[in-house]
Structures are given as structure tokens and as C-alpha cells.
Amino acid sequence: MKRALIIVDVQNDYFEGGALPLHKASEALANIEKVLTLFRENNHPVIHIQHINEPDDTFFLPGTHGAQIHPRLTPLPNEFHVVKHMPSSFLGTKLAEWIQENKITDVVVCGMMSHMCVDTTVRACQDFGLSVVVLDDACATLDLRYGEETIPAETVHKTFMASLQDVFADVIQTSELKL
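Now predict its structure.
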């Protein structure tokens, strides 16, 4: 087994003062930092995913502070950095190729947003035969609207973690992770 950490879209726009602040983004960031430190200390591969939108969008705009990876997670030179333009970290990127070249069999996924890019990336892992662990408390999302109803971020997050559990991933808390 060779395990890598995939950190999905932890970018400045998702934090207070950004274009699209998420519910509990700072709490998720603190847990992501713990896991990143663990992977670095044990010399396990780390993959940073960065989403860049089209210039006419409202967040993650090219060349902006908001699109930058959060400074507490700045990639090191030996860590793989993937720029994507779609919810899946695999679509239109070299991620699958890098994973295969590095003989990665297992991934730990965390990041933002639970209901969008984290979910899509985790599901895509199945297409590449990867075993996946998702860190529940190292992910964040936001309230969603459906018709006239607002679905609270906590409910959105729990629903997506529940839908990933068992079929697509083991969903655990950061404190439960064993390398």
C-alpha cells in the first residue's frame, strides 16, 4: 500500500473576507494542517488541488488572492500541485497519470467543498481503483438552496459524507487516521 494525501481546493476565497466563505472553514483548515504535518513528517506524498474559474465567475478568479491556496498549506517543492477547472480533480489534469506513475494505491482526501469538488473527486477515485479515506472534520461546505428552501451547511455536509461512506470511501475523523 502506498498512500497519498489529496487536499482539495483549500483556497483563500473560502475563508472570512473571501468571495465565498464556507461554514466551519477555519475548523476544517486546522484539521487539514494536522494531517498535512503527519504526511510530511512520514514522507508520504502530498497532492494540492487548486481550482481556477473562468474570469467571468465570482470566485477563484485567475491571478487573484482569493484563488491562491491558503498560506497555511503552501505546497512544498516536492509536493504535486494540480490546477483544475472542473469539480473533479482528475478531469483535464495529470492527476491520474501522476498517481499511477507513483504507484499510489490509497488516498486520504480532505478539503472544500464537501458537496462539490470533494464529492466529485472521491467518486472519481473509484474509476482508478483507489482506496479512499475521507476526513469528515477536515472538509467544509456551505448552505445550499433548493427551490425556496435553504439547506443548512451542517445537513449538506452530513448528507454528502453519508453518501460517500462505504461504497466510495471510509469516512472518519482526523483523529482516527492511521498511516
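The domain at 3-176 is CATH 3.40.50.850 (Rossmann fold).
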